[in-house]
Amino acid sequence: MSDKVSAQCHCGSVVFSAVLTDGYNNVLRCNCSFCRMRGAVVVPAQEVDVIKGKDLLTEYRFNTGEAAHFFCSVCGIYTFHQRRSNPEFYGVNVACIEGVSPFDFPVVSVSDGINHPKDGGKGGVAGYIRYEPK
């Protein structure tokens, strides 16, 4: 089942949509030096459509330069990124999706990006992040 969602950065300068091909079943975090500072849901790259503000997106690449990370140049919010493990998929910042908060997910898998398969590691799941409201 596919679900088209509306999303935007904090200031609304960048507006985009994405099609969740598996709902929120693949929400994940990653423990690499960059991704551990944010969270994403995985979608096919062709299912991300920037509706407004494409010219305001800033691209950042690090380490191997293989994955492209996109941010709003006005407010600095991470919107989505091209995945290094599979460039045909994007990770979309769940916090940008209308009506969704990272705290909506009680358990989130953490990918082992420190031991990325493209660097000779095994990858897989490094652990889980749990959120329990008070």
Automatic annotation (TrEMBL):
Query: Keywords, A to Z?
Result: Metal-binding, Zinc
UniProt domain CENP-V/GFA: residue ranges: 5-119
In alphabetical order, the GO MF annotations are: carbon-sulfur lyase activity; metal ion binding
Signal peptide start and end residues: none
Family recorded in the similarity comment: Belongs to the Gfa family.
UniProt-recorded name of the protein: GFA family protein
